[in-house]
Amino acid sequence: MRMVVYVAIAIPAFLLSGAYISQYGFGLFPCEMCWWQRYPHFAALLFGLLAFFNPNHVKILTSLSALSIALSGLIGGFHAGVEYGWWEGITSCAITANPDLDILESIMNAPLVRCDVAPWELFGISLAGYNFIISTLATMLIIILILKRKNI
Questions:
Q1: Domain boundaries defined on the chain
Q2: Does the global pTM surpass 0.85?
Q3: CATH classification code of 3-148
């Protein structure tokens, strides 16, 4: 199988895994813009898996995966800018409800998650910032791999 397909599957899987490990393993509940970043990665993962199982359409499916990864990266870049105070966000704060509790109790006890506050940083870069960096690099890598092999 081609390297481009592996990248188109591995990057969104890696980033989504990191997001869910952060959420469920470390209690870093996602804000609304964090969720926005996940949706394109789900699409990218789907396109990558379709390319894996349909080798006749690898070029178009991996291109769609790259486009989806780029979209998530752009949302991550915008979100990081909101977290760093570079510009205003376009959403209000979001809450995450617990489906195991009564609806009212769930809403009242849900953590308030602000989109303009980074819940975690490493070397001054937030999770949204890392999504931007990794997604941008992955998109460029997929494009290079597609262009490098004309017979994909």
A1: 3-148
A2: no
A3: 1.20.1550
